[in-house]
Each structure stands twice: as C-alpha cells, then as structure tokens.
Predict the 3D structure of the following.
Amino acid sequence: MQSERHDRHDTHARHDSRTPGSPSSPALIELDDFCFAWDEVPTLRHVNLRICAGDAVVLMGDNGSGKSTLLRALCGLVFAQRGSYRFDGQEVSERTMRNQAFSKQLHQRVGFVFQDSDAQLFCARVADEIAFGPRQMGLSETEVARRVDDTLALLDITALRDRAPYALSGGEKKRVALACVLSMNPDVLCLDEPLAGLDRRTRTWLLGFLHQLKAVGKTLVIATHDQSLADEVADYFVYVGDAQGYPDRPHVRINA
Ligand SMILES: Nc1ncnc2c1ncn2[C@@H]1O[C@H](COP(=O)(O)OP(=O)(O)OP(=O)(O)O)[C@@H](O)[C@H]1O
Ligand SMILES: [Mg+2]
C-alpha cells in the first residue's frame, strides 16, 4: 500500500514509515480525493488510499466512522461523488459500472463478506448460494459444480450443502458467506467484521484461514474492532477518523 505524505492537519490519508513490498509497484486499489455522503451527510471525506496486490490491510475506527462504507466503495456498491476510484488502473464509477461486463468483472475480482451475513444470503440452499456467483460469471454447470464442491470442502461445510442458509447458526452463516465469495476466486477479499459473533474455535480457524489466503497472495482488506485479528494479519492499518492506533506501526489515516 502506498499513500502520499500529507500534512498532519489535512483530511487526507497520512502514510507513515512502512516500506511497501515494492514501493514502485502499481497500486491495485487507488482512491484519490474520494468523497461520499449518505443522504448528504459526508461519510468518506477526501480519502487518498493506495493498496497493492498482496497487501493485508486492516481498517480500524469507531462505530459509524465509515469502515463499512469504504469497503462498499471498494466493491463498487457506492461511488465517488467527488474524486475517483481506480481498480487495476480502471475507473470504477456509476458510469463504468453500468457496463455489465465491467461490473461483473469487478464483482468477481473484489469479493465482499458483509458484516451481517443475513444481508448476503438469499438462496434456499447453501449449494445454490455458493453456485450463484460462479453462475453469474457464466461458467459451465460442470465448472460451477466443481467450485461448489471445492469451496464446501475448503471451508469444511460439506455437511451444510442442502441446508437453508437462513436456518444456520451465525458462525455457519459466516462460513457460507465466505464460501460464496471464495467460489469466485477473487483477487481481493473485503471482510467486514469477520470474527464478530464467532466462538473461540471458529475464530482460531478463521485466523488460520486468513493467513492461508495471505500466503497465496490474496489482497485482504478487513474492517475489525478485534485487536488480535488486526495484530496478527495487518501489513498496514488504515485508521478511520480519530481511531487510536499504534503510532509506530505502518498506517495511513483517513477521515481525520
Ligand atoms: N445505507 C445507509 N444509509 C444512510 N446512512 C448510512 C448507511 N450506511 C451507513 N450510513 C451511515 O454512514 C456512517 C458510517 O457508517 P458505516 O457503516 O460505514 O460505519 P462503520 O465504521 O462500519 O461502523 P461500525 O463499526 O458500527 O460497523 C454512519 O453514520 C451510518 O449511520
Ligand atoms: Mg461497519
């Protein structure tokens, strides 16, 4: 991740000491002066942020500071009202996302696991839920079936294949939501409070799983209030608003 150095008092992201893996590598995600307001209430204010492929970035900030909104922006669910967002060099905007091929590709490459699994799951069967994304990508039914089987096995939820998502426990829903995203083999995973509501065993499993994703080069952007997750996974922090962070760990500050 790279970010321009700005004066301490401005509202832009401030990049401190960390040496990115390759300072010269092009940013996969690039927000420039990105502004977004919900109902005219400014929520993302002049955000400058660069995230390189393979980075694991943790967003930390108070309730209502804008973490989920930022993840939505990265996934192309809300758009810059001023400034810009480029993914892999291509502008992501209301206009470009009207192009179906482009929006499909963005949704395939940037997966989003919602804070609330119920907002993500809508099919009658877990297997259909996981198949939904690959089908949207236009894959053959043979390939869709293979991805469903592989993802069920990867997340150790094969036994849930024919269950109704709405009737699962919170932790089971979280695994299914993760499976839905992974079945599309995205480059970037945006995870919103992934550990919330999970028991100790499932937390341990998910932390290990995030390390595996990191090891295979996935880009992770995670919003969390969980200090241990942040400590374990983050290459960089994005402190949103006046979040207290580690002054000595690599970070940028947005919405300050
Ligand atoms: N769909 C929406 N419509 C209107 N306002 C919204 C919407 N979603 C979020 N907001 C507002 O935008 C602000 C930022 O919300 P957001 O969900 O991004 O915060 P957050 O940092 O993720 O908080 P939390 O830690 O509680 O999850 C809040 O004031 C919230 O009320
Ligand atoms: Mg949130």
Observations:
- The longest helix spans residues 200-215.
- Residues 54-72+111-254 form a domain with the Rossmann fold fold (CATH 3.40.50.300).
